[in-house]
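Lab notebook page, bench 4
Experiment: in silico fold of construct C2
Operator: M.H.
Input chain length: 400 residues
Purpose: comparison with the prior construct
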Amino acid sequence: MFEFFIAKRYLLSRNGKFLSAISIIAISGVFVGVAAILIVLSVLNGFHKELRDRILGITPHVVITKYSYEPMHISDSLLNKISGRVKSLAPVIYSKTLIRSKTASDGVVIRGIDPKLEKDITDISQMIIEGEFDFKDNGVVLGTDLARALGVSVGDEVTIISPFSGQATPLGTVPKSQKYFIRGIFDSGMYEHNATLVYFELKQLQRFLDMGEAVTGIEAKLNNIYSAGRKAQELTKALGFPYRALDWITMNRNLFTALRLEKIVTFIVLVLIVLVAAFNIVAMLITMVLRKTKEIGILKAMGSKPKSIVRIFVGVGLLLGLIGTVLGGLFGYVASLLLNRYQFVHLPGDVYFIKNLPVQIQVSDFALVIVCSLLISLLATIYPAYKAARLTPVEAIRYE
């Protein structure tokens, strides 16, 4: 097609060997915009993946409880309805209470688990940074930020106080308290968990809370973490009232909603860079129309139709956008790979929950950015191409 040949020629300098300076400027704008979007989105994906992995490291995929969070007894019929739909399961007790050391006290969430079964549900046993994941002789395991707040370390003694289970007296119920020893300290990478969670052995906690053989829930692990929402709905329907199943996304809904909104807003803001580059393309094409007025007039005098003139300038804009998008995409991909492999950027560990900048490349993000960039480049050519097509041969060559 002669339109493509002319469009390609318009991008080159006068000697026809290199791109013209104005073409390089227009391409650079698209290149920077596309590369910036892809690198930032890859970093955001890395942060989201790292955060998700840390949440799933200490949070079960699905938790089955009663609507009122009342204690429940695990029967064979209940287990049969659950076990066929999940990979593994374990009983658990959730409760809130008070913990006190010699120097401080704090409100905490206590979690009673079966250590052997819990290893198939979460990775808490692999997060121990001091001591061991052990509960012998009234042992407990707590988070590093909670240990720091209480001023305790492995081997120290703490007192757990339960205001809802104790001895009744004429003056009211006396809160029950018992001394425990710290056997391990974990670091989940999440401040909320590190500062509030205390792990107990299940039987030990049942005795302390006078619960007998009852538990407050059943934790379950799935083969596919992204099917948790559907599985939770299936379990809720299969078990019926008063049971319900909550998936890990629902339990952390506010956090993941905020992360999703952050990614959308970031994408929109960065697309503005490509829009600025599109204005460069518009300015270049309008300037080219003014400079090529004689050539346009000659082409139309030789019989070229307005559609051909439109195709020429649309082709120029698309070539600029295509070159900039391809180069920006390649640079963004290579930069993301290098950031992920060599970890050039280091983060302060006491501020962020990770030490290196996480990067995750998603094909869907690359496809979306490339399509948006090419679409913006195409839209930028409409007005200049329409302006060029409206020139009449006589007016175009009158003063030449």
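Observations: The mean pLDDT is 84. Strands lie at 62-66, 88-100, 105-113, 128-131, 139-143, 157-169, 172-186, 197-201, 217-221, 243-247.
Next step: discuss at group meeting.
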